[in-house]
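1st attempt posting a full record on here, be nice pls
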Amino acid sequence: MSHRDIEVSAELIRDLLREQHPDLADHPLRLGARGWDNQLWRLGDDLAVRLPWATRSADALLRKEHAWVPTLAPRLPLPIPVPQRFGEPAERFPRPWTVTTWVPGTPADLAPATRAAEAGKVLGDFLTALHRPAPDGAPVGRGHGGALAELAGRFSEHLASAVELGLVSDPDAVRALWDDAVAAPHWAGPPVWLHGDLHPANVLTADGTFCGVIDFGDLCAGDPACDLAAPWVLLPDGAAGAFYAAYEPDVDAATLRRARGWAVLTALSGMLIGEAGVRGRAGGKASWGPPAHASLRRLLESAD
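the predicted structure (as tokens):
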């Protein structure tokens, strides 16, 4: 994390809009959320301003979203934040920023999906539409969509931390899931478009099912198993059948094994972030813990 050396405020955002997009400067403005990389401010009823605030990598991620997301959005069956305007770095705020469409809904870590069959179908349809072969020049993931073996160090660190905190009672079973995923045959198909970061805080719900997907900063091309961790990470118990009935093409056994590995890594990360939130530590989010624990339970049950 970098030093948050620029105070982002409504006054600053209005000044930036007046300088570069004056037709939007008088819209109502209020803070929407502070994420890992960016702050999100709602602009009027239909737009949002997204500004990097915590990580230095956020600048490149915003530029990537601005370049690629508009080409993907028309084919996706769920609303996503589509960049509408680009803000160039300026003296007062020397970083890029964007204006996107606003996607209504509640993050799934705060309001999990409860309508199992419908949520499974909605997620399956969304990933079917997204997972198309990516063109030459599509971005490569930062630790997403590649070979799981490259993340072995991260897995071991997360597992050791979770065990030390008393969050995992059977580390041997967790490691067995991971080892099986790493040993699975690699993806032999073309790199497909991936969201890359489908955890509960990046998927929105309404009325018990999914209504939107946000934060495409990790958009990349690679192995679909990365996103196919989502049934364990996002869906309630009993929803997996509806997901696999909707998702096309059929998921082969090797991809399913690799997907479990991605899901294990996501679950451990969520458990640690959730525990940090419970303990009041910087960067922690207590709401991430319960869905992460449920995800790991489902994964271990699937291996029995």
